[in-house]
Design goal:
InterPro entries: Cupin_8 (IPR041667), JmjC_dom (IPR003347). The protein is α+β, with helices and mostly antiparallel strands and 391 residues long. It contains 14 helices and 18 strands. It has helices spanning 13-24, 29-39, 52-57, 59-70, 92-95, 114-117, 140-149, 157-166, 192-202, 235-238, 245-249, 294-307, 325-336, 343-346; strands spanning 42-44, 47-48, 76-78, 97-99, 110-112, 123-130, 133-134, 138-139, 183-190, 224-229, 255-264, 268-273, 278-284, 287-292, 352-357, 362-365, 370-375, 382-390. The strands form four sheets. Strands 2-3-16-13-18-11-10-6-9 form a nine-stranded mixed beta sheet. A hairpin with a 3-residue loop joins strand 7 and strand 8. The radius of gyration is 22 Å and the shape is globular. The two termini are 24 Å apart.
Length: 391
């Protein structure tokens, strides 16, 4: 089908051979060969130049999606059209956050809009990695808590938010230092906490490679409103995230759940699988997703359980262990670090797939496909997504 981008079909075999010969004669050939060897197990997902709304609105796309993607269980990236004349279907992408006025910073930063601040008291589930030490500037979480105690958005609000966060943080010993293992902390707090975190980062002079500033301090990272059910949002906010036609029309129209994901990069979700098909839409910033077919994911999971001495665990029921400690480290090393020594990963058949998502792009993840997600936005920047599980 012409709408598909299959890069391996882009050049004739003769042209490919000429390119290979030319590459082999290059002074960088040895280095390039090493890079290809390390990354041969990752291929780009199939993609089409049509967003999640257009797919079901045009019969050729709709037929293709239903018969060749949804029924066959094939991951697919749907790219948002680069037009300035089409308003986004997800109004949250333009109404919830705003950029700082020009000149307020060297680079634009996102902060919460007045519209969204009207819902600052709504509770949300949060995740946080703690501590976040920097060699010269201490713990970013501690710096943020100090900021909260002086935050005067509403009298007493900052101190109350600081108490909520502090009450869930594990104690650190006097030898805590940069590079130590982080704790994975979960708690519930008002949306105002995310507002404060964005403001803290927006007016923080970031530490960047090659740029030194005496007043620089590291931004808060990894604060994540993760898997917050859309059903729990105020109705006004739910209307900003309408159910896509693809979710309602591709299969039976059954929706099993939906979530909003708002975080401060670098956000990360470890390798896991879902019991139902998933439509994942990027709203803010960018993310990269890596995927494994069900059988290959099960092999990797079994290898992890064996190596970690957890034989008999269930891949269908996983708790916080997937987001901290040895299991998180194992899957991160196996999936994201090129040249992994894990034999199962190096010999994947078919290979691992990868999807890079920018605002407006979406990814269809078939039932049972293993996937892991991480933001590619600059540290501390806003990153947001929404998804629906359906069939």
């Amino acid at each position: 089908m012409e709408v598909l981008h299959r890069s391996w079909r882009a050049a004739p075999l003769r042209q490919a051979r000429r390119q290979a010969v030319a590459a082999a004669s290059s002074p960088l050939a040895r280095q390039q060969k090493r890079c290809i060897t390390r990354s041969h197990r990752v291929e780009d997902c199939e993609s089409i130049d049509a967003d999640y709304d257009e797919v079901m609105a045009h019969p050729p796309y709709a037929t293709f999606f239903k018969d060749e993607v949804f029924k066959d269980g094939t991951p697919l990236v749907m790219k948002s059209p680069t037009t300035l004349f089409k308003p986004p279907a997800m109004q949250a992408s333009t109404k919830w956050f705003k950029s700082l006025p020009a000149g307020a910073r060297e680079e634009p930063r996102k902060v919460m809009s007045d519209y969204l601040k009207h819902h600052a008291g709504v509770p949300f589930p949060y995740e946080l990695n703690y501590p976040q030490f920097h060699r010269l500037h201490g713990d970013a979480v501690a710096n943020f808590l100090d900021f909260l105690r002086d935050w005067n958005e509403v009298e007493g609000l900052g101190s109350a938010l600081a108490r909520i966060v502090t009450s869930h943080l594990p104690p650190l010993n006097s030898r805590s230092r940069p590079g130590q293992e982080q704790y994975f902390v979960r708690f519930e707090a008002p949306l105002a906490l995310f507002d404060a975190a964005l403001q803290f980062n927006a007016f923080t002079k970031y530490i960047q490679p090659g740029r030194v500033h005496p007043a620089a301090r590291p931004p808060l990272r990894n604060l994540y409103i993760a898997q917050a059910s859309l059903d729990s949002l105020p109705s006004e906010l739910q209307q900003d995230l309408p159910v896509p036609r693809l979710v309602k029309e591709a299969g039976k129209g059954d929706i099993y759940g939906s979530s909003i994901w708002l975080g401060l990069a670098h956000t990360y979700t470890s390798l896991h699988r879902d019991p139902n098909p998933n439509l994942f839409i990027q709203l803010y910033g960018s993310k990269v997703v890596r995927l494994l077919p069900p059988e290959e994911g099960e092999k990797l999971y079994a290898l992890a359980q064996n190596m970690l001495g957890r034989a008999g665990g269930s891949s269908a029921i996983r708790g916080s262990e997937m987001m901290e400690g040895e299991e998180k480290a194992f899957f991160h090393r196996a999936v994201w670090i090129d040249g992994s020594s894990e034999k199962v990963v190096r010999n994947l058949n078919p290979p691992m797939l990868q999807a890079v998502l920018k605002p407006g792009d979406s990814l269809f993840i078939p039932k049972g496909w293993w996937h892991t997600v991480k933001s590619t936005t600059e540290a501390g920047e806003l990153n947001g997504s929404v998804n629906w599980w359906f069939r």
